Amino acid sequence: MCVATFRSMTQAMKAKNYIDQLYISSKIKSIDSKMTKKGCAYGIEFNCINLSIITDCFYKNKFKYKNIFKVE
């Protein structure tokens, strides 16, 4: 699984809406500050198979995320 991180719950919810429009399964998660190294954050967990589709969608919609990383 992959997780895209965002600074706020509102941003994470907007990101989930974009992903939902692509008919890709995802869920909002609270991200531990140890993973971001910059305090608490929120993320969207999704299958890494969809990584390029999701990043393309964010780029086309000028939607910024902090980071994307793989989780077990």
Overall description:
- The protein has 72 residues and is of the alpha+beta class.
- It has a single domain, classed as Alpha-Beta Plaits (2-Layer Sandwich).
- Helix content is 38%, strand content 29%.
- It has helices at 9-21, 33-36, 51-60, and strands at 2-6, 26-31, 41-46, 67-70.
- Strands 2-3-1-4 form a four-stranded antiparallel beta sheet.
- It is globular.
- The relative contact order is 0.33.
Explain briefly what this protein structure is.
The protein is α+β, with helices and mostly antiparallel strands and 72 residues long. The protein is built from three helices and four strands; from the N terminus they run βαβαβαβ.
Low-pLDDT sequence parts:
none
Report mean pLDDT, rounded to a whole number: 87
Kindly state the percentage of residues in helix.
25-40%
Give the SSE order as H and E letters.
Answer: EHEHEHE
Portion in strands: 25-35%
| The CATH top-level class label | Alpha Beta
Q: What is the count of β-strands? A: 4
Give the CA-CA distance, first to last residue. Answer: 6 Å
Question: In one word, what is the shape?
Answer: globular
Q: Which sequence of strands runs across the widest sheet? A: 2-3-1-4
By CATH, the topology is: Alpha-Beta Plaits
Radius of gyration: 11 Å
CATH architecture: 2-Layer Sandwich
Q: Summarize the biggest pleated sheet.
A: 4 strands, antiparallel
Draw up the topology in text.
Elements: E1 2-6, H1 9-21, E2 26-31, H2 33-36, E3 41-46, H3 51-60, E4 67-70
Antiparallel strand pairs: 1-3, 1-4, 2-3
